[in-house]
Design brief:
Helix content: 25-40%
Order of helices and strands: HEHEEHHEEEEHEHEEHEEE
Shape: elongated
Strand order of the largest sheet: 7-13-12-11-8-10-9
Number of strands: 13
Oligomer: single chain
Radius of gyration: 23 Å
Largest sheet: 7 strands, antiparallel
Distance between the termini: 38 Å
């Protein structure tokens, strides 16, 4: 199991719900309601995710039920003035849903990629977030490069030991400029970005965009976009949750 897969499995529920000041009776009731995933932390005044990895029901099924039970223990006025917060629940492949508590109400959201509200992230987040052996890369790039650049680009893709077929790679040369199109190519994003930086001369000629995700079961947490502007890569990830 890769480090990325281990991280995904270990943190299937994250976040907290701030409850604030509660009566002694409510605190006592909450203390007796600890579930497989959630529990009340009196020192923080919050509903938190248990530190011990549970062995019971999966998070997408259990967390909503446990959250409802804990909030039901509050008096109506306590629920209304609770600080609120959010819990993000993941299944074995990625994000499953988000439970937001505000004004004493629970709002459930399923992730939906919104690139118009894309969030900038560090390039290292892309490299850590996508397991190279299952990475799926598509996009179109243009840059100037010397003789033999085509072969060196093909080599990094054909020589990569991934789990899936290489996909479709097209390279066209017009004098010194290369146009590269990738369609579902299985190659490590870091290895590809490094090779592009080696081949582009000058580096400032590198322009275009790469869509980076993963083969296998779809996980929106592992979808990224890398945009090259004058040779500099800028990484983005889509917003997953609609604003109120």
């Amino acid at each position: 199991m890769s480090a990325v897969e281990t991280l995904t499995r270990a943190f299937e529920c994250t976040g907290e719900i701030v409850l604030g000041t509660l009566s002694a009776t409510t605190r006592e009731q909450l203390g007796a309601l600890g579930g497989d995933w959630l529990e009340y932390a009196p020192d923080q005044g919050c509903i938190v995710v248990r530190h011990v990895q549970p062995g019971g029901p999966p998070a997408p099924a259990a967390v909503p039920a446990e959250l409802i039970a804990l909030l039901d223990a509050l008096a109506p006025e306590e629920r209304a003035r609770a600080g609120g917060g959010a819990l993000v629940v993941r299944d074995r492949q990625g994000v499953a849903l988000r439970l937001e508590v505000a004004g004493g109400e629970i709002r459930i959201q399923w992730p939906r990629e919104d690139w118009e509200r894309a969030e900038p992230v560090g390039l290292e987040r892309v490299f850590l977030g996508v397991d190279p052996v299952s990475a799926r890369v598509s996009g179109r790039l243009r840059f100037t490069a010397g003789a033999g650049a085509e072969r060196r680009l093909v080599d990094v893709i054909e020589g990569f030991e991934g789990l899936y077929p290489e996909g479709d790679l097209r390279i066209e040369r017009d004098d010194g400029e290369l146009t590269v199109e990738l369609n579902d190519v299985n190659v490590g994003p870091e290895a590809l970005v490094d090779r592009l930086a080696e081949l582009a001369h000058p580096l400032e000629s590198l322009e275009g965009r790469l869509e980076i995700g993963a083969f296998g079961a779809h996980a929106v947490e592992r979808d990224f976009r890398v945009v090259f502007e004058h040779g500099r890569p800028r990484a983005l990830r889509p917003a997953l949750w609609r604003a109120r």
